[in-house]
Design goal:
This protein is α/β, with parallel strands linked by helices. It contains 12 helices and 8 strands.
Length: 313
């Protein structure tokens, strides 16, 4: 049964399409870069368009504490002219392989949502090796509690919170959403989640490292998940799912590394087998990093379907 579900999921992944692709000149550069995680090269491709991104009409409050740790801080992006009705709320979590990254690296995401009438919170979270699994997911839950208590102060609706994560951020969001044990059985109380190219099965990544061409030891994995590989299954979200109450948009990029695409398929198959198939988005023409760099530019191939999901929930 599981094998059949996996095959169906693989076929669905192959057939699914995004609403659009990047502009041809950018798409050509991304395809030449290939299915790799190369932040500097991706950022170079998008540097010119991000330099021209619109920032008008947005007010920012920086480094608001949502918890006791040094990295328990977030930035609030809100429309300067507050709408009459309470706004939906997005909480975004950056990537960085569990060991690096900063909310300011994704300011374009905050500007995008605020310019479209959505209150955006961009959060930092604890990183390895100083902090290990499941610190990131615990911080995700903490930001939700903060938003539920404070979103109204900025014009947001605390009952309409959608979590969005990319890469390691998506891994942390997935664990916080699907595993109630991480939050001591308490309800998360959000209206949706968007997962962009996350890590959901660290055991699979290790077992198939040679096939995926992942160098061993994997500094990222060992820094956050530890070096005892026997414990990896117990830290793999796909094996820990016990809460199916959150509507989810599961996304992956055409030019994601093989392990990211495989894990998207595995997560899709697992959720469907449990009777909770997520919405699925194959991001055509994009790579692991570029999909998020495209927010708040003329390239709306990613931001448009994500915004539609947020507004529908």
């Amino acid at each position: 049964m599981h094998r059949m579900t996996t095959l169906i999921a693989a076929a669905t992944l192959a057939a699914s399409t995004a609403l659009a692709e990047p502009p041809p000149d950018i798409a050509a550069q991304l395809r030449a870069l290939g299915p790799v995680v190369n932040a500097p090269a991706s950022e170079k491709i998008y540097a010119a368009v991000l330099a021209k991104q619109p920032k008008d009409g947005v007010t920012i409050r920086s480094d608001l504490a949502y918890g006791p740790a040094e990295r328990n801080v977030l930035d609030v992006y809100a429309p300067s002219a507050r709408p009459a009705a309470a706004m939906p709320v997005v909480i975004f979590f950056h990537g960085g392989g569990f060991i690096r990254g900063n909310k300011t690296d994704r300011a374009n995401v905050g500007y995008f949502f605020a310019r479209h009438g959505v209150l955006a919170l961009l959060a930092n979270y604890r990183l390895g090796p100083k902090n290990t699994w499941p610190a990131g997911a615990q911080d995700v839950a903490a930001t939700v509690r903060w938003a539920q208590a404070h979103a109204a102060e900025f014009g947001g609706d605390p009952k309409r919170i959608v979590l969005i994560g990319e890469s390691a951020g998506a891994a942390n969001v997935a664990l916080a959403v699907f595993d109630s044990k991480i939050r001591s059985g308490k309800k998360l109380g959000i209206s949706g989640a968007v997962l962009e190219s996350g890590v959901y099965d660290v055991a699979l990544e290790h077992q198939a490292a040679a096939q995926f061409k992942i160098e061993q030891p994997d500094v990222r994995t060992s820094a956050y998940f530890g070096t005892d590989v026997k414990r990896y299954p117990a830290m793999s979200t796909v094996k820990l799912i016990d809460d199916l109450s959150t509507p989810t948009l599961l996304a992956y990029a055409e030019l994601d590394p093989a392990q990211m695409q495989m894990q998207a398929g595995e997560m899709f198959a697992t959720l469907c087998a449990k009777g909770a198939c997520p919405s699925l988005l194959r991001i055509s023409g994009h790579g692991h990093i570029s999909q998020v760099l495209s927010y708040n530019t003329d390239d709306t191939s990613v931001s448009d379907p994500v915004l539609a999901f947020v507004l529908a929930h």
